[in-house]
Amino acid sequence: MVITTITPPITTPEILTDTTFSPTFFNDHFTLIIAQTEDEQHRAFALRHTVFIEELNYDIGTSSELNIEHDEHDQHSLLCLLHHKATGIDVGCVRIVLIDPSVEQKERGLPLEDYYPAHLFIADTHPHYFPASTVCEVSRLAVHPTARKKNKDIQSPYDSIKESPALLSLSLFLAATAMVGLSQRYHVFAMLEPRFSRLLKASGLHFYQVGGVINYCGSRAPYYIDQRVAEESLPIKIKPLYQTIKLQLEAQLPLTSPLH
């Protein structure tokens, strides 16, 4: 199988104010939805199938004839959709995998533990080093192909998606940061391409590499960030967008069972 990877464009704080993707623009055009119903969850799985299975040809998830991509970790995850109001399209999604305090799931751990050898972690950085109730993993971030393909000659409701496509990815990571904090799962892990982690750092999210690189859907390594430090250290130019995203999600999270 040939592995192809997409690195979503990331907007740095220096050029953020030069775009129309301000907090007001975000509220006018986008809604973040924590997937609570079966339909909302199916929409997230369908978008993941479009990106990871159809477009990237990744060999991940459980086989399904329903054109959805999901796995056993979705049962104890928070799923978030980024919905575009004008077109009715879910243009992005991300999930936060939580560790269930039950013995069975605690032993299984985070998704990255399914395929990443424990001995490759730097000392005292393995997820098991932290209390299980404070650990999570950000994964399955996907941006709809429509949002990544521009056509400058055509004016349409899609224009507000394509005005700042880089900020779609950034807004999903900010949404993940907010959900993690609201859930008090402060110790955050993610499997990232090293170059993507550098782009996130340029946007104010400083993930630290805590293990060696392996070949899993491309070259990836485990990264760690403390959500409390990340939130406090966000660049001033990004904080208004982050607070807008956090407010959208805060209203939904009390209605959401962290482990459903």
Explain what you see:
This is PEP-CTERM/exosortase system-associated acyltransferase. The chain has about 260 residues and is α+β, with helices and mostly antiparallel strands. The chain has one domain (about 20-95, about 110-145, about 160-255): Gcn5-related N-acetyltransferase (GNAT) (Aminopeptidase, 3-Layer(aba) Sandwich), CATH 3.40.630.30. It has helices at about 15, 25-30, 40-55, 105-110, 145-150, 160, 165-180, 195-200, 225-235, 240-250, and strands at about 30-35, 75-85, 90-100, 135-145, 185-190, 210, 215, 220-225. Strands 1, 2, 3, 4, 5, 6, 7 and 8 form an eight-stranded mixed beta sheet that branches. Helix 7 packs across helix 9 (about 225-235) and helix 7 (about 165-180) crosses helix 10 (about 240-250). The two termini are about 35 Å apart. About 40% of the residues are buried.
